[in-house]
Amino acid sequence: MRLDAPHHSNAPELDSMRALRLLGRALRLRCPRCGARGIFASWTRLRDRCPTCGIALERRESDYFIGAYLVNLVAVEILLALIILVVLLTFPTPPWDAIEIIAPILMFAGAIGCYPFAKTTWLAVDILLRPVTAEEVEAHAAPPPKPGA
User: Fold this and answer.
1) How far apart are CA 102 and CA 8, in angstroms?
2) Which of 32, 61, 70, 104 could share a disulfide with 22, CB 3.0–4.6 Å?
3) In tens digits, what is the pLDDT along the chain, a chain of 149 residues?
4) Handedness of CA 133, 66, 68, 142 (dihedral sign)
C-alpha cells in the first residue's frame, strides 16, 4: 500500500466549512444535521428525534451525555476564568464583596444557561466525527409497528 494513495471513505471529510455549518446550527439550538427547529422538548431535554430529518438526538451509547456535560463544564469554567481575570486586573484591591455575590450566581446561571447549547454542540461534534448512518435515518422512516401484530 502506498502512503500517498488517496483515502476513499463514505464518511464526509472533516472540512472546516462543514464543521462551521454544524456548529453554527448547534449554537442556534437547531438540529446540527438539517438545521430544523423544535428539537427541544424543554430547556434541558432534547426530543428523541429531530422532527424534520429523524436522527436520534441522543445517539446510541449509554454514556453519550458525558460529552455534553464536558462541553457545559468547559463553558462554566470559562466564566470562572473571567472572574479570575477581574481579580488579576483589579489586584491588589479586588472587589471581594461583589465577587462573593456574583461568582456563585454566575456559575449556577451559566451551568443552566449553557446546558442546551452544550447538548447541541456535542451532537454537532459527534455528527462531525461519527456521521449519521443510513440505518439511523431508515429507523425513523420505517412505519411504527402495529399494536397486536
Assistant:
1) 53
2) 32
3) 444 444 444 445 568 899 999 999 999 999 999 999 999 999 989 999 999 998 888 887 777 789 889 999 999 999 999 999 999 999 999 999 999 999 999 999 999 999 999 999 999 999 998 888 887 777 666 555 566 65
4) positive
Q: Let me know: does 11 contact 101? Beta carbons within 8 Å.
A: no
What is the sign, positive or negative, of the torsion defined by CA atoms of 143, 146, 147, 149? negative
Which amino acid makes up residue 70?
A: L
Helix (H, G, I), strand (E, B) or coil at 130: coil
- Its sign, for the CA torsion 8, 10, 14, 20, is positive
pTM above 0.70, yes or no: yes
Rounded to a whole number of angstroms, the distance between the first and last alpha carbons of the chain is: 52
Cell of 26: 448547534
